[in-house]
Amino acid sequence: MRPTFVLPAALMIAILMGCGVSLAGETEPGASTEARSAWQVEKCEVFAKALDRILARMGTDDVSPDFIDNNRAYIASGCLAPVDACPKTPKDIEIANGLTIATMNAGAASTFSPFRCRQQN
């Protein structure tokens, strides 16, 4: 029986990233529509249309301006940029929930959306 060598996950990821392999299958931020897969384009279109529909229905009162701006920046990047759209108000959270459901219903993973609230130093 041959001995088995298992690389730690962090080392494997570092090796793959160093070789230019993207684990998510995404293209680089700012890539043109032609360079992105049809699925990447479709997910972003679903996200953009859902944001427009939700904002038209709910309005923007009590929505954090930076939450809307960061979602728009995410869309402008082709839904590839590492944007942090942190929902802060109850209405932000309601919009984030609606967007997550819309994209998941279209087949995207819940991690597709840019909803992150990183701790600021």
Task: Give an overview in words.
Residues 1-24 form the signal peptide. The chain is mainly α. It has a domain at 36-110. The protein is built from four helices and no strands. It has helices at 9-18, 38-58, 65-76, 90-105. Helix 2 (38-58) packs antiparallel against helix 4. The protein starts with 8 loop residues before the first helix and ends in a 16-residue tail after the last helix. Residues 1-31 have low confidence and may be disordered.
Helix content: 40-55%
Biggest beta sheet attributes = none
Give unreliable regions as ranges.
1-31
Quick check: average pLDDT? 79
Rg, Å, rounded:
17 Å
Question: What is the structural class?
Answer: mainly alpha
Principal-axes shape call: globular
Report the β-strand fraction as a percent range.
under 5%
Secondary-structure element string? HHHH
Instruction: Quickly count the helices.
Output: 4
Distance between the termini: 51 Å
Total beta-strand segments:
0
Signal peptide: 1-24
Keywords: Signal
Key features?
single chain, 121 residues, mainly alpha, disordered N terminus, 49% helix
Helices, strands, pairings?
Blueprint: H1 9-18, H2 38-58, H3 65-76, H4 90-105
The gist of it:
The protein is 49% helix and 0% strand. It has four helices and no strands.
